[in-house]
Amino acid sequence: MIPSPELRATGVGALPQRDPDAACRAVLAIFPEIPFIPTLPNRGLLESIVFADSEHLPGGVVREGRLTVDRGTDPSEAMEQILLDYLEGNAEPYRVGEAYGSGFHAMMGRDLSGPLLVKCQVTGPVTFGMQVVDETRRPILYDPEYADLLGKLLALRARWCEEAMRERMGARATLVVLSEPYLASLGSGVVPVDPGVAASAFGDIADLLEGGLGIHCCANTDWGFVLGLAPAVVSIDAWTYAREFLLYADDVARYMETGGVVAWGVVPADYAVFAAETSDSLFARFREIRARATETIDPDLFDRQSLITPTCGIRNAGEQEAAAIMEATALLSRRLRGEEP
Question: What is the DSSP string of 187-216?
Fold first, then answer.
């Protein structure tokens, strides 16, 4: 688990900047206590979700803007090496290349020994496996070999990130959050996801990490299943889905009692929606969520185990608009903590 955030604030992941140093400066200025390492998808395809964690995928090729696996090459040797590296905990070959994570490399030049926690993002195995397809356009999550591989491959990526945050940035505590919008497919009859496959992949990643491992899903899903995985953090779009999430209030209470943290994404990342809100309306919105939650959850426990974030990454906004969303998130946190009226 991670240190209790006590209503502190951080961001989710993506920012609109193309200059990684500028993005890192913005994050550190606004979220000094729990900074996150920004992803910068507007720099190019390789820094967007899934692609950013694909550089070591056996058989992976980009065709017409889509990531696929090429069956014309035999991936078995590369797959065996991933399994061996996983068993040995050898994460160094799975480092983030600068073309895939310029924000990560820019943050590595900074001393982050002061913050309570340092956070980064890695694509989750379900989303990765549903987005990457074979030559028949079948998601590789439906291929037993690749389904088994993905958790281990992404575990090595996450382990390298964790080690880099600790050793290259001086982080006292680390959090790797899996970006998992495709968890919305749990229970779907159209694009079904096997919960057993998802749980196994998450377990593979959790087993290799020493610090915190979280899950971010900006859609609605089977929250009982997600909470049952016992991640360090469950990150949700609380602006849209707080009511659905709190249908599982008993599960949330048990989760928090064992040290789990909920990241309440209560500040809209869509600037058009955000622009219609005020500091007071965001404060009132969160207080409504808290009032519903604390009908079941002890209020002190709720405050101790809650983190405040935007609803999702902030990609489709200008730099000034993104800064305004982040600053509103930080201000909301300070008001909730009684640091500002």
Answer: T-SSS-B-HHHHHHHHHHHHHH-SSEEEEE
Number of domains in the chain: 1
Residues 5 and 299: their CA atoms lie apart, in Å, by 15
pLDDT (tens digit per residue) in 76-123: 899 999 999 999 999 999 999 999 999 999 999 899 999 999 999 999
Backbone angles phi, psi at 179, to 5 degrees: -80, 115
Which residues fall within 8 angstroms of residue 127, CB to CB, at 6 or more apart? Answer: 49, 50, 179, 180, 181, 182, 183
Asked if the structure places residue 283 within a domain, the reply is yes
Residue 10 lies in a domain: no
Nearest to 291 by CA among 300, 279, 282, 299: 299
C-beta of residue 199 within 8 angstroms of C-beta of residue 232? no
Confidence tier at 208 by pLDDT (50, 70, 90): very high
pTM: 0.95
- 8 found inside a domain: no
